[in-house]
TrEMBL record:
InterPro entries: Stress_up-reg_Nod19 (IPR011692). Residues 1-17 form the signal peptide. The keyword Signal applies. This is Stress up-regulated Nod 19. It holds the Pfam family SURNod19. Keywords: Signal.
Length: 272
């Protein structure tokens, strides 16, 4: 009989540039005669949400059956080698274990590395540290403007209609990013400037399988599309009294930096 199940390893904690190469013995996994048709692994956070590879890179994962000699008992172990590469000076160098980025001259057993050994597993063993980008004074924090739609009726036809909200920025702001938080049955969100121009959209992608990260009919990611600006988002100055308008079905979050002589920050939460 075909079955599907998910299993978790013990918790491990990663910091900037850190490496985790742990072995977990006697893990929860089916015993006896089993045939694996498919097997996938991913890193999840404390809430069970998948962590993207560009933040926590999985170098390899292994699951292996072994037997405890004392009782000749079947058991399973897992080994995961993963790197926290967000904000790294050289992400590819960190995940490829370049020795100069880890400042390693000996392997995990204290044996000096051979001449000409520039990188591989001997340089990125458990609890080693890759170089990361230091915090710059020019980097400033942001606050969040959160628009929260609320269901106004139990009527399904009414509840599925577009929701629109407008908000005037009294002091003017730099809008630097927009994204939507959406659940199953969400259709997407869009952010418009006060002149009617489309700034960005957030459209959901639904899974079509049953493997890790692709659950059938579940929202698995959000596609971001930016109509102005550059790079991974936009950087748009809205003057005093400008209006933001959102057409949405679920939350739209707008990150912004307040423009003003005081240099302060402000957070708005507005419900409809």
């Amino acid at each position: 009989m075909e079955k599907f199940a998910a299993f978790l390893s013990l918790k491990f904690v990663l910091g900037a540039g850190s490496v985790c190469n742990k072995y977990y013995y006697n893990v929860d996994f089916p015993r006896g005669n089993v045939a694996l048709k498919d097997f996938n692994a991913e890193i999840v956070d404390e809430s069970g949400n998948a962590v993207p590879l560009y933040e926590t890179y999985i170098y390899h994962w292994v699951i292996l059956r072994y037997f405890a000699p004392k009782h000749i008992e079947e058991r399973w172990l897992t080994n995961v080698l993963t790197f926290y590469i967000r904000g790294m000076e050289d992400q590819f160098g960190c995940k490829d274990c370049k020795c100069d980025l880890y400042k390693v001259t000996k392997d995990e057993y204290g044996t000096p590395l051979r001449l000409g050994y520039t990188g591989c597993l001997k340089c990125c063993y458990d609890e080693t540290q890759c170089r990361w980008v230091d915090w710059e004074e020019a980097t400033v924090p942001v606050k969040i403007m959160s628009f929260v739609p609320r269901k106004e009726s139990d009527d399904s036809e009414l509840a599925c209609k577009n929701k629109k909200i407008s908000f005037v920025l009294p002091n003017g702001d730099y809008v630097i990013y927009g994204a939507a938080h959406q659940h199953s049955a969400g259709f997407g969100s869009a952010l418009y400037g006060d002149d009617g121009r489309l700034m960005c959209t957030s459209l959901p992608v639904y899974g079509d399988g049953n493997e890790a990260g692709n659950g059938l009919s579940f929202g698995i990611k959000i596609q971001q599309h930016y109509k102005s600006g550059r790079g991974d988002g936009f950087f748009l100055h809205l003057g005093r009294g400008s209006t933001l308008e959102i057409l949405e079905y679920t939350w739209m979050l707008v990150f912004f930096w307040r423009d003003g002589k005081e240099g302060g920050y402000q957070q708005y939460l507005l419900g409809i």
